[in-house]
Amino acid sequence: MLSLTIPEPLSSSASALRPSARLLTGFIQKPTSLSWPSSFPKLCISFDAIAAPPFSTHDRNSFIRAAWTRRSRGEAAKRPNRKSWKQRTDMYMRPFVLDVFFSRRFIHAKVMHRATSKVVSAASTNSKDLRYSLPSPTDDNACRIIGNIIAERCKEADVFVMSYEPPKSERIEGKIEIVIDTIKENGILFV
């Protein structure tokens, strides 16, 4: 901490004259010689304790990093778990996602809200109303029925737009294509 020590007044007669004379003569030491440098007032300044800055200084680049809008490859490699802008905002831009699972015996489909992980609508060929009424719970006709049920339940829940992201190694073809096309035919948009 920077402290300023001002010497005591030299005489009480200077303070009795007028306040401005007290300021000029009372708190400034008189020069010991008549040289030019000795004519400047002598202030006693001490650096006993230096106060820590209000912010943490463990990362010198924190202020500079806040000014960047995009990160370089080197900085991205330093923080691999940091998600990109698209990854952070995608769940709010496309909030409803279709999830379809095909087992050997049944077809399961659900529409989920990505931000809250709430299931909006779900349908399965293993449900009580479909299990014994379908000739085969995994054929193309079952895929169309699951698509119709999902579309109806989404409309009841006021969901008219959803997205589907296939896994990296899969393409949209076969049974999943039938489910998605049936949902589109019933008035649900895919983005």
TrEMBL record:
Keywords: Mitochondrion, Ribonucleoprotein, Ribosomal protein. One of its GO terms (biological process) is translation. This is Uncharacterized protein LOC111016081. It comes from Momordica charantia (Bitter gourd). It comes from the Eukaryota. It holds the Pfam family Ribosomal_L18p. Belongs to the universal ribosomal protein uL18 family. It is found in: Mitochondrion. GO terms for molecular function: 5S rRNA binding; structural constituent of ribosome. Its main location: mitochondrion. GO terms for cellular component: mitochondrion; ribonucleoprotein complex; ribosome. The keyword Lipid metabolism does not apply. InterPro entries: Ribosomal_L18, Ribosomal_uL18_bac/plant/anim, Ribosomal_uS11_sf.
